[in-house]
Amino acid sequence: MTEAQTKTEITFEDFKAEVLNDYRIAKISRECSLLGRKEVLTGKAKFGIFGDGKEVPQLALAKAFQKGDFRSGYYRDQTFMMAIGQLSIQQFFAGLYGHTDLAHDPMSAGRQMGGHFATHSLDENGNWNNLTQQKNSSADISPTAGQMPRLLGLAQASKIYRNVRGLEELTKFSNAGNEVAWGTIGNASTSEGLFFETINAAGVLQVPMVMSVWDDEYGISVHARYQTTKENISEILKGFQRDEENNGYEIVTVKGWDYPTLVETYQKAGAIAREQHVPVLIHVNELTQPQGHSTSGSHERYKNAERLAWEAEFDCLAQMRTWLVDNNLATTEELEAIDEAAKKEVLEGKKAAWTAFVSPMKEEQQELVSLLNSIAETSSNKVFIEKYASELASIKEPIRKDIITTARKVLRLVVKESGQSQLATWITNYTNKIQPKFSSHLFSQSDKTVLGATTVAPTYDESAEEVDARLVLRDNFDAIFNKYPESLIFGEDAGNIGDVNQGLEGMQEKYGELRVADAGIREATILGQGIGMAMRGLRPIAEIQYLDYLLYAIQIMSDDLATLQYRTQGRQKAPLIIRTRGHRLEGIWHSGSPMGMIINAIRGIHVLVPRNMTKAAGFYNTLLETDEPALVVECLNGYRLKEKMPTNLGEFKTPIGVVETIKEGTDITIVSYGSTLRIIEQAAKELLEVGINVEIIDAQSLLPFDVNHDCVKSIAKTNRLLVVDEDVPGGASAYLLQQIVDEQNGYQHLDSQPQTLASKAHRPAYGTDGDYFSKPSAEDVFEKVYAIMHEAKPEEYPSLY
């Protein structure tokens, strides 16, 4: 790796060496793009999306980028990553091939296609590195503008570290808030709502963020005239420009081929953001895309001859060459020598990456071929097995699919033969070795995983009186903010009025506007604030006012937060807590329970559904001692119900992944969660009057669900199962049924068909009657259970209808 250097006072010779080194880095990056495309088109790699045409402005960005800073960027920033010393030629190609070894592809261990970059915030045990002593890149994602919300949080963390007392000891994460968050995006992607939402929020918050827009006039084949009003993003954002009377942005436009002006521009932008905590927008225009958007097509199809000729002339590397020669910094011969050396170096790096990629698989191929030939000797299907072995051996460059597919097909041929056990063992061992390369780290594998958290029950004074449940939450948050100076909460109405249900009453006055903060109506960037700050060592709680509004943020939760540990193979984390409230209230927009959609969209985030506020408070206490993200859904109709006030606020911990039996019974097991449990409890009392004894289990958490398999233990006693929830039919109830019947093998103990009871397929209508006729009622539960018992014992429980 060759890192770009910038010195404050240098001689002409030093300056010349630095500039030529920059050119060399850019040329290496360009050659990687050109050769990378060939690797895709010859079939060695699956897909390529490269940073050619953007090299020179990325050099300038790298020069202003300092240790401790963070990048949240676009999937074309390979030159920048090379310039900060975080991407070698061999690593570039390892990523292109999808090498599953983190030592070869440190960006994602083959889990993301090339062009998606990350540095390691964590060591191999999941512990934080010193982020102030390294140059940091948050892990990229493909969804356009999806990097924007996280960028806001990365920048806001600096503001928190600079202005909030009590964080002085967190020296691994910040040097008094002097770090800048640098964002990059393609011009066409500025059409996305996430871009505008983030730009607005950063201007409101006044955070140290420098946003670069790489403008080559196209979004794949679609010209800027169809993307942006006036075809100019900086022009239409002029209203954000700060002035003497109003905060806002510093907005700069610079040509992407003008090396000296780019360097000057980025140095000034970095200083403004770093020193003044003012966001900066740099519109880098007149860029090119020499190979088009990706390996999926050719830009000659949509660019005319005039445009292609202009791109050839104003290619940033061509212009940099001209500048170097015109300013006597290099001769044409010197540059040609650099070009030739770069081409050779890239070719050698590519070969080394390919050899490292295929060598382990060739060894695995040879191992299986040898085993199959040995097994064939004593098999009645010798001819067929030898054919499989020969076909596998003939594959010049095998992949693991070729290897395991062959083994599994041969296994069918040796059933009941002596070789079956040997081959089955090989397949099992191989799968156990290889599968984690593709499936590990969906959740934390550190010693701070939620599954390792201890349970601490709430304690009470003998004379404890019942209070409004929201006071349990409020006083527990008070204990949390006192115990964890790095904790903070923000959301719509979370600050001044103490949230819409008063669970944060008085907290802003006590802990300040930065730690207990109001936010605009912008759910996606509220999530982004939390992700970015959590990636920098803070413990944010992002509040989404109602569960229905989570849909605005579900894409960020799904594509960014839920995949973070997975897509970095455990080398980045964002232990964000998302707080919301939901379930029963009134009408279509404020009483939804789209839990099935949520749990299937955000695997990688824990989903917790406490039935009361004490349980919810215990979840917050548990999560703050772990390192994983979670969504906590408080019961919207539970804040004014009465609960006893615990004496060990901030300390008691609700277990995650553990169900609770809240009523024992003998005839049928009902599994549910949240507000619906109160309805089930009422129905259970009425069922007991007719001789049906129901066992009620509170799921408590949907992800993970019942890690101790207590539900199946209950079914072994009752032999019947009903899952009740207020999601649509086939939503979370179908998931719970699958977990119990399939995952836990609960079917073995069932004497009756397992059933579900959910809401109607439509959203709930307004009013009390709307609730009754849209969601399960106590009568629905009673009659559903009664019907199950009627089928089992018709004489004892005659039909109601």
Automatic annotation (TrEMBL):
Which domain of life does this protein belong to? Bacteria
InterPro entries for the chain: DH_E1, THDP-binding, Transketo_C/PFOR_II, Transketolase-like_Pyr-bd, Transketolase_C
Co-factor(s): thiamine diphosphate
Q: Which Pfam families match?
A: E1_dh, Transket_pyr, Transketolase_C
Q: Per its UniProt entry, what is the enzyme's top EC class, as one word? A: oxidoreductase
Matches recorded under CDD domains: TPP_E1_PDC_ADC_BCADC
Keyword annotations from UniProtKB, A to Z: Oxidoreductase, Thiamine pyrophosphate
Query: Which residue ranges does the record assign to the Transketolase-like pyrimidine-binding domain?
Result: 467-641
Give the E.C. number(s).
1.2.4.4
Listed SMART domains: Transket_pyr (SM00861)
Residues crossing the lipid bilayer are none
Per the entry, what this protein does is: E1 component of the 2-oxoglutarate dehydrogenase (OGDH) complex which catalyzes the decarboxylation of 2-oxoglutarate, the first step in the conversion of 2-oxoglutarate to succinyl-CoA and CO(2).
The entry's protein name is 3-methyl-2-oxobutanoate dehydrogenase (2-methylpropanoyl-transferring)
- State the species of origin: Flavobacterium buctense
